[in-house]
Design goal:
This protein is mostly helical. It contains 12 helices and no strands. Helix 4 packs antiparallel against helix 8, helix 8 (185-194) runs parallel beside helix 9 and helix 10 packs across helix 11 (253-269). GO terms for molecular function: ribosome binding.
C-alpha cells in the first residue's frame, strides 16, 4: 500500500552458507584453470618463446594469486575463522585472489579508487596553481602558468581530449619543479594514490616505489606498442588506463584507445618525463563521480 516501504526478506543462515560455499568453490575452480594455463605459459617461456602482453599478464596475475591463496586459505581451514574473512578482505583487499572477487565487490572497489583519484586530481591541480613565483617568471616567452590553468579548466569542463602539441608546450613550464626528486611529501603521496600504491613511508621510499611502478609501466608500454594497441579488448583498455592514472569508468572504447595511444606517443616517442605525463592525465579525470 502507499506509504509502506517494501521489506526485502532476509536470507536464512543456511542459504547464505550455501551461497558462500558456491562462491569459494567457483573461486578455487577458476584458480585451478588459471594455474593450468600458467603452467603452459611457463613451459612456453622455458623453450625461449616470447609471450604476448595478454599471456604475460595472465601468467603474472596467476602467480600473484597463488601467493595470496596461502593466507587466504587459512580462513577456510581453521574452524570458525571464516567469520573473520570479511574483516580480512576489508582491511587487506589486495590480498584476496582475483578469482574470488565478485562483481559487486569489484565495482565498489573501482568506484572507491575513482573517488580517491578525484581527490588526488584536485590536490595536484592546486599544487600546480601554487607554483613558486620564480617558475612564473621563467615562463616569459612561453605559455604562462596562468594560461595552463585556464587550459586545464577548459578541457575538464568540455571533456574534450587534450591535444598532444599543447601538452608538450605546457610541460616545459614544470620540467624542473614537477620531478620526483623535487617533489615534496604531499605531492609524492598524491602520485602514489594515483597509481594505487600505499602512500606510507619516507620520501625516499615513496620515490623508490614510484620509480619501480613507473619502470613497470614503461615496460608494459613497450609491450603494447609491440603487439599493437588495436589488439586490446575494451576491458584491457580500461585496466591499462587505470594503471596509468587515467579515467576508465564511463568512457567509450574509442576514447580509451585515444588516451592510451596518446600516452604511448608522449612516453615512448616524445620521451616526456613520466611524472609530468602522470600530471597531464589529471586532465582526463572529472570533477565529480559519475
Amino acid at each position: 500500500s502507499p506509504g509502506k516501504e517494501l521489506v526485502v526478506p532476509r536470507k536464512s543462515l543456511w542459504v547464505r552458507f550455501v551461497e558462500e560455499v558456491k562462491h569459494y568453490y567457483h573461486g578455487f575452480r577458476l584458480l585451478f584453470l588459471d594455474f593450468k594455463v600458467a603452467a603452459r605459459l611457463f613451459f612456453k617461456m622455458w623453450k625461449g618463446i616470447s609471450l604476448t602482453r595478454r599471456e604475460y599478464r595472465q601468467f603474472t596475475r596467476t602467480v600473484a594469486d597463488l601467493g595470496r591463496i596461502v593466507p587466504f586459505s587459512l580462513f577456510l581451514i581453521i574452524p570458525m575463522a571464516e567469520f573473520l574473512l570479511p574483516f580480512y578482505v576489508k582491511l587487506f583487499p589486495g590480498l584476496m585472489p582475483s578469482t574470488f572477487e565478485d562483481k559487486k565487490t569489484k565495482d565498489e572497489r573501482l568506484r572507491q579508487q575513482l573517488r580517491t583519484r578525484l581527490d588526488t586530481a584536485r590536490f595536484l591541480l592546486k599544487t600546480m596553481e601554487e607554483l613558486p613565483v620564480e617558475t612564473r617568471r621563467r615562463s616569459s616567452g612561453r605559455k604562462s602558468v596562468e594560461d595552463f590553468i585556464q587550459f586545464m579548466d577548459r578541457l575538464r569542463q568540455s571533456g574534450e581530449p587534450a591535444p598532444t602539441e599543447e601538452i608538450l608546450k605546457y610541460s616545459k613550464l614544470f620540467e624542473d619543479e614537477m620531478t620526483l626528486d623535487n617533489m615534496e611529501h604531499p605531492s609524492l603521496v598524491a602520485l602514489c594514490k594515483l597509481l594505487q600504491l600505499q602512500p606510507i613511508g619516507t620520501n625516499n621510499f615513496l620515490r623508490f616505489q614510484l620509480r619501480m611502478r613507473l619502470r613497470t609501466i614503461k615496460a608494459d608500454d613497450k609491450m603494447i606498442q609491440r603487439d599493437g594497441i588495436n589488439t586490446l579488448t575494451a576491458n584491457e583498455l580500461q585496466v591499462a588506463c587505470r594503471a596509468r592514472g587515467m579515467r576508465a569508468l564511463g568512457m567509450s572504447e574509442d576514447r580509451l584507445r585515444f588516451q592510451l595511444s596518446q600516452w604511448l606517443d608522449l612516453h615512448l616517442n616524445e620521451e616526456l618525463p613520466t611524472s609530468l605525463l602522470l600530471l597531464s592525465r589529471v586532465l582526463y579525470l572529472p570533477d565529480n563521480l559519475p
